[in-house]
Specification:
Layout lengths: L2 E5 L10 E4 L5 E11 L3 E7 L2 E6 L2 E4 L6 H7 L8 E10 L2 E8 L4 E5 L3 E15 L2 H12 L4 H23 L6 H21 L3 E12 L2 H35 L7 H26 L15 H16 L5 H13 L2
């Protein structure tokens, strides 16, 4: 086996967390050989499966002076030039960013509005190695995890598990998600700190990019949002009608203000009338006769009851609301 006089490692991919030299077995290193450790690296010598001495970035000449543990084992025969069998781990100390995680299968969540639902989530996380020998002994030595891809796969299920625990303590319904995303991220990161530390890693960041409900729940939310938009449009019509009315009543203006006032009044009344009709088609009055409105036909009542029943089945209104509206519709016949 050749004697290695220059020991160094370059990572062109940027994804290798640990590299062993030589890759298989052990190598012969001569006292006096050059060890070059790049920035964002630490080199650790191993002999017979045991970590001996470590080196920070820079150029080092191997000798019993900077390899005291190894020197005490092999002694210094042959004028300090004796080769010794060992291997070196080059460990990356930089922060590895944008590692991905996600739910391979949906997680269950007890929702106060939608009962038990399945949620999917995904995001990214960043890590940095802080306890080199712990990492080598737990993940590299026993599991052979040396790249960011392997680390992603290993920690994915752990992140999802902690996220599931945090969700139940932070929110009661997925309708709360827009205001609790940051809280969920912070609390999940805190819950994972000890899990990463036991492997010698520090969890720098944990980002939750999305938490999504199943399609049927999303459809219910969209329908509820649509109803809210309809309400906004009604209020907008009222405001426009009021503005037209005020403009028509304004006694000051330029030439032709009488015609403008008349037109403004007509437009305002027209819009108000249209708004009133829209309201009647969506929500009939309790006593149509009292307001001079025509009574509803049985077909109209049946159709509106059907719509109310669908809204109740979808959870948009309560059974109590349904019975109340049902009574009003029957009274309007």
């Amino acid at each position: 086996m050749a004697i290695l006089d220059l020991i160094e490692f370059f990572d062109d991919s940027g994804e290798i967390m640990v590299q062993k030299i030589p890759y298989e077995g052990s190598g012969q290193f001569r006292l006096g050989s050059q060890l070059v450790v790049q920035e964002s690296q630490v080199a650790v010598f191993f002999r017979d499966g045991k970590a001996l001495d470590s080196f920070l970035p820079g150029r080092h000449t191997l000798s019993t002076a900077n390899l005291p543990l190894l020197g005490s084992i092999i002694g210094a025969p042959f004028g300090g030039q004796s080769p010794f069998r060992s291997y070196v781990y080059f460990i990356a100390t930089k922060t590895f960013i944008n590692l991905g995680w996600g739910t391979s299968s949906p997680v269950f969540f007890r929702d106060s509005d939608f009962r038990m639902i399945n949620l999917r989530a995904h995001g990214s996380f960043s890590i940095r190695m802080v306890k080199y020998r712990t990492f080598l002994n737990t993940l590299v030595g026993t599991r052979g995890l040396e790249t960011t891809f392997a680390i992603e796969e290993f920690f994915k299920s752990m992140i999802v598990s902690r996220l599931n625990e945090v969700l139940g303590s932070v929110m009661k319904s997925i309708l709360d998600l827009p205001v609790v995303y940051n809280t969920i991220s912070l609390k999940t990161k805190e819950a994972l700190a000890a899990d990463f530390d036991q492997y010698g890693l520090y969890l720098v960041d944990l980002i939750i990019e999305a938490i999504t409900p199943p399609p049927e729940v999303q459809e219910m939310i969209n329908k509820a949002s649509g109803l809210a938009i309809q309400d906004v449009e009604r209020y907008r019509s009222i405001a426009a009608a009021d503005a037209m009315r005020d403009a028509a009543k304004n006694p000051h203006g330029i030439a032709g203000e009488g015609m403008g006032a008349g037109m403004g009044l007509a437009m305002g009344l027209g819009m108000a009338q249209q708004f009133s009709q829209n309201l009647n088609t969506v929500r009939p009055a309790a006593d149509p006769g009292a307001l001079g409105q025509p009574k509803l036909t049985s077909e109209e009542v049946r159709e509106r009851l059907k719509q109310l029943k669908e809204m109740m089945d979808e959870g948009l209104i309560t059974p109590t609301d349904f019975e109340e509206k049902k009574k009003k519709l029957l009274d309007s016949m």
